[in-house]
Please model this.
Amino acid sequence: MGQAKEAGISSEEITEFLKGTIPDVIPGEQKLAVCYAQHWAETDADPDKDLQAEVTETYGEAGFQTISMVLRMIRMGNLLGNTVDYFLFKLSFGKLGV
Model:
């Protein structure tokens, strides 16, 4: 949450994202990318092919590849963080992590 605030995202916007909704303040040209990112996360990185095609058509192949790379990097960071947290929890007999 700290990094989001540093990037200029308001508390209200963060709250909207955490509810699973897309805030109205997202610029129109970015809404599809944000919706795609949300869909990508909710489908466990297995998005609808038609939506992928729409994103590619809207942002171009390079734009789609950039969005995909960022999503994979975020996912990898989350998975690694969760794994480290779990190991800390187990190794400390529940005193650290989780």
Notes: The helical segments are 2-6, 11-19, 28-42, 49-91. The mean pLDDT is 89. Residues 28-91 form one domain. The radius of gyration is 16 Å.
